[in-house]
Specification:
Elements (H helix, E strand, L loop, with lengths): L7 E2 L5 H4 L11 E2 L7 E2 L2 E2 L9 E3 L2 E3 L4 E3 L2 E3 L8 E2 L4 E3 L4 E3 L2 E3 L8 E2 L4 E3 L5 E3 L3 E4 L2 E5 L6 E3 L9 E2 L4 E3 L4 E3 L2 E2 L9 E2 L6 E3 L4 E3 L2 E2 L9 E2 L11 E3 L4 E3 L2 E3 L1 H20 L1
Antiparallel strand pairs: 1-5, 2-3, 3-4, 5-6, 6-7, 7-8, 9-10, 10-11, 11-12, 13-16, 14-15, 16-17, 17-18, 19-20, 20-21, 21-22, 23-24, 24-25, 25-26, 27-28, 28-29, 29-30
Amino acid sequence: MDNNIIWKKVREAVLAKFGNSGTREDEEPYYSLDGKSILYNGYEVKNADFESFTYCFRFAKDKNNCYRTNTKYKEADPETFEVLNYHFAKDKNHIYSINGIVKNVDYESFEVLDNGYKTDKEGKKVSGLSFSSDKSGVWWMDYYSLKPTLIKGTNKDTFQRIDDSYSKDDKYVYYAGTRLPKANPLTWKRLNEETYFSQDEDKFYFGQELLKDADPDTFEIVALPEALGIKPYAKDKNVAYICHNIVSHKELQETIKEELKFVEELKKG
């Protein structure tokens, strides 16, 4: 079990201290201004019992109800309600996400495969790519709908998370929940941690997109001036790439030139 799954009591606080903390657990999104009513990022958790109220990540419960952010789950049981990771909770009846009751997974065989969050540069926990499984296979948490989506054709027994973007099993490589076309999991590798370019023995990708005509002998990520930092630019002997979009070598150089000009103008104020 994740050591960070700890139920916390709500503290009285001044609004200026906590403010609107988004989904950053470390900034304590649940708080009280009067020791009676409870707020989640400024929105009241209606009818919450202050004395028995506790929270973990974006889930909460008191002696009467269970909650997702500031909204009550209608059917949840406080006595058996437990948090599984950043995205999921369960009780004796259902699996829950921040979106509500999860109806498309099998309750008995469902399990989370990670903690569901990543740590940002400031050391705060923020929502991250998350995988879970049941008897149907492996699920990934969709960023936008906040609903688990089945990764079709996955081998649950060999599935493994690679990093916060990629995973694989014995047959396929996946970007988030999407299969990389024709990628060989035995030879596939990410080219660096800063961009989403990757390759296997003879094919190159950006994210989930196959760069169909990339030349394997000359493909490289473009080295940029330090002032520009890391950009998703690459090239081979024939063309250049901005993300997965093909441009000419000249067009890429013009883009870099314009970005350097913009940086210099910012420095001048």
